[in-house]
Design goal:
296 residues; alpha+beta; 11-stranded mixed beta sheet; 11 helices
Amino acid sequence: VSTLARAEAARLPAFFRAAAPDLAARLEAALSAELTARTAPAGLATYAHTCPIPGQAPAAYALRALDLGLHGLAIAGIHFLGLDVTRPFVGVAARTHAWPEPAPVAAVLCAAFADFAPTAARWFDAVPPGRADQHLVAERLTALQAAPRPRHFGDLRLRPATAAVHARYAAMVARLSPAQRALTAKETPQSLTTCAAAGALFTAEVDGLLAGLIAARPEPLLGLPAWVVVAEVLDAPFRGRGLGPAIQRHLVERLPGDGWLWGTIAAGNAPSLRTAARVGRRVIGGWGFIDVPPTR
């Protein structure tokens, strides 16, 4: 685990490594915790029940340490896109080697989990490999708070909210265009409750009118103390008015501590990537799928 953590840390951007001198140790702790969680019998039984594959015992769903020969060592496990058992893929938690030619590695990884018939492998890199899936954007809160406020910051006001706002949030998501809805996560009342309990669920108002919602919760970033952006939506009448950076900056000023603010953005969501950059969040890397022919 220590070797894998050091290799993963070395592949991260220089600015990120410089801000976290103990990054390798933190990654090692995070990876150890993930291994513990993904090998615990109770958790594996739940996973197997949720995504049942005929003939596969719960132990088969565990993360595995794999010796990939010339491709080095990796920790990987079986996953299902959207918990859909017809869409299995191999997810890589950590690896020792850089894998500049991903296709042969993806084939070896899928062969290791052939009983699940995965059709792709997915891993994180500075540039998403293969078919880009998501980008990871992040920056330290102190750096974000020190940056100049965006142009429309004063046009918008945040108010603390409770999970009772979920119905209005869902209505705002429903009013997005089909393309926008496809790129917007649909949070549950339980998810918003967690954000509210952390003091990071807010509605946004413009001239006294409900304009949007933004939410975050404490969640480590690669082992570092951090907040993750869980939900952000502007209602249809308020889109295209430059309020995206403003609502994010208001959130930044409400969050305590000197940790990081991070989130994932779909690879096809160029407007959200631009908004994150305007607030000061930087791309750390991203995940990509490498497709392979079915193994059975």
